[in-house]
Amino acid sequence: METLLQDVSNNLSFVLMCVVLVVGLALLARLIEHFLPEKRTVTPARRVSIIGICAAIATVLHMLDFPLLFLAPEFYKLDFSELPILMCGFYLGPSATVVCEGLKIFLKLLFKGTSTAFVGDLANFVVGCAFVLPAATWYHVHKSKHSALVGMILGTVCMTVLGTAFNAVYLLPKFAELYHMPLDTIIAMGTEIWGGVNSVTTFVMLCVAPLNLVKGVLVSVLTMLLYKRVARPLFGIHR
Q1: pLDDT given at position 10
Q2: What residues contact residue 41 under an 8 Å CB cut-off, 6+ apart?
Q3: How far is CA 15 from CA 4, 88, 119, 174, in A?
Q4: What is the pLDDT of residue 176?
Q5: Which of 142-146, 203-207, 231-235 has the lowest mean pLDDT?
């Protein structure tokens, strides 16, 4: 009975954390957008349709994730779902990125469920926002090809630093707690890849940080190559 109550308490605290992070990021995006120097005029119906299309594409890309076993244990996976979300943010603004990220996770859970007790899904949402939110914000402050590149570099740095810290402080301990898996077992998975992994700190530095860095660089390069080609038919910016 005591174990059951402890499990309920752990799950409730996790749900509360999810709600706080989702609401907090949404409010932060709206606050940032309020101070942007220039806003694109888009009808509500068009805004909803663009966000919906980008979220649907992001969901498909998210479900096509794959591990990089030479960098991190197999439960850490790489996907390119931030690509359409970033494009949506460049066109509509920072708040659209948070909505897109949230819809992506919701649709993924609806169609595929979770294999990480929802911890991985929370991680993907928060770390994804840490990338696309700074990138979209910087672009809308300056609005140029150069600022888009600088924004994505800034986003990559934020995702790498914040994602690494969030894993060390909250995600890894919570994953071990909800899965009833000793944290040492997770660390041992990292040690099999990198001999220098002997603690949570070294695990996130050698496994998590490089993975986030690789993802940020790849998504940024693809965005620079594809944005103009994709945005014209998708957003109608040629009109």
Answers
A1: 58
A2: none
A3: 17, 28, 10, 12
A4: 84
A5: 231-235
* 40 Ramachandran zone, left/alpha/beta (phi>0; psi -120 to 50): beta
Buried b (16+ CB within 10 A) or exposed e, 142-153: eeeeebbbebbb
Note whether 162 and 28 are within 8 A (CB).
Answer: no
CA atoms within 13 A on the CB side of 188: 6
Residue 199 and residue 168 in contact, taking contact as beta carbons nearer than 8 Å: no
As a whole number of Å, the end-to-end CA separation of the chain is 64
Q: What is the pLDDT of residues 74-122, one digit of tens each?
A: 888 899 999 999 999 998 989 999 999 999 999 999 988 887 778 888 8
pLDDT digits (tens, 9 = 90+) for 17-50: 888 999 999 999 999 988 887 766 778 888 898 9
For residue 28, CA distances in Å to 10, 23, 77, 129, 174 come to 27, 9, 27, 11, 25
What are the φ and ψ backbone dihedral angles of 67, each rounded to 5 degrees? -80, 155
Strand partners, 160: none
4, 159, 160, 164, 192 from 217: Cα distances, Å: 43, 11, 11, 16, 25
